[in-house]
Design a protein that fits this description.
alpha/beta; 9 helices; 26 strands; 20% helix; disordered N terminus; binds fe (iii) ion; binds calcium ion
Amino acid sequence: MIGRRQLLTGAAALAASRFIAAAQAAPANRAPRLTHDPFALGVASGEPTSDGFVLWTRAVGLTEDVRLGYEIASDENFRAIVRSGRVDAPAGRGGAVHLEVPGLPPGRPYFYRFHLGDAVSRVGRTATVAVNPERLRLALTSCQHWEHGWFSAYRDMIEQGVDAVLQVGDYIYEKSFGSGPNVRAFGTPDPQTLGDYRARHALYRTDPDLAAAHAAMPFIVALDDHEVENDYAGVHGGVTADPAAFLRRRTAAWQAYFEHMPLGPSTWRRGGSLQLFRRFRWGRLATVHMLDTRQYRSVQACSDEKRGGQVVRDCDAVADPGATMLGARQEAWLDDGLARERGNWSLVAQQTLFSRLALPQGPDARWSDMWDGYEAARSRALGSLGRPTVRNAVVLGGDVHSFWLNNVLADFEDPRSKIVASEVVTSCLASRNGPAALFDGARSRNPHIRHHDNAHAGYALLDVVPERIDVDLRAVASLVEPAARCFSLERRSIEAGRPGFA
Ligand code: FE
Ligand code: CA
């Protein structure tokens, strides 16, 4: 704890020295007199392309619209400034900025910072994507519970030299749960309003490891359920029964999520929806198809008496062809994108476990919130993944608080059917592991599951080259020890042209 405090003090001192330099150098801009740090939540970047990215900050503690200054440089000391200007930070958006920066040369690192009056933000680092990179290092992460553990895994991602972080959901948690040691408390009730969700996101960004990660690496994000409430499905609350009350809560939560993420300005749509499914390309090496499996899905099968995800048995509705995980528009977008894909690796990033998971609770028992509860939708997705034109499909996911390496079969009912893709599921970054009652013995019931660990938190590191992807499951040694480091729990490779794990 003392170490962290000193770290913060050091960072504050550094910020203060930059502040003096900037106040002398920057032209006077009309801004309110500040008695606090408007950039206390830090900076972030995302949406990397070969010619640009999105830069984010959120000016806090202000009640009026302000304009922030920004600078982008090719060097850390801001001697070679390549862009500078002003950007609106509207009070109606909580002072959030989503600055789209196009037109830069490919494959270069950039440094950026924001100004307001005398105040200057910390410096962030990001990069444009190379025209045809030969290597790509991705961190796959999900499920970070403020109370359950320190976010130490982010320090490891920075040390590993990750090009981009794929955060596939449960970025915040709306509630406390489970028993076990907590390292800190939310200190506020479960969020319901926009103000509540803003405060929850702002609390998260005071974590020094999370703030440092956002300043060091671009994040590519999509949300899951806990950014709103547990196990909601589209317009159906997982907890809140009243439909209108749920939609109010969802809109508030989504707006706060948008306001805190380095997403493009057009992500937040009129009427309160989020356009989150989108593609990222690293030349011919790899494409990430980022999916949104929460916003458009049908309600969980056989959830009439109890809301949300649960073990269902002999539930015919899991095979309902009318049920959807992605919605018709996103399904067509994925199918079309995979069909046209010319990249070497097609990485399909989404929220939860994709492969079949037979449970100990009976022959057809399944967890209704995962793809197992949307059998027909999964069959359609398998059809898209299995097209002969698709080269090297890898499904990426999270949500289940345990690590999984799976062979994605064309037909999970036939263990000898073709392997159409590999699946990498990351554990929680900081939370309790998954339910032993569901996951114990998973490999013996599911031969397509090639590795499973339900005893560690961490993230999955993917080192992508044309011939292979080296997967390194990075486990954090302890969630309660603030200085804990990560280690390799398991290393496996996916060979190009040969889907699956041995
Ligand atoms: Fe989770
Ligand atoms: Ca989840």
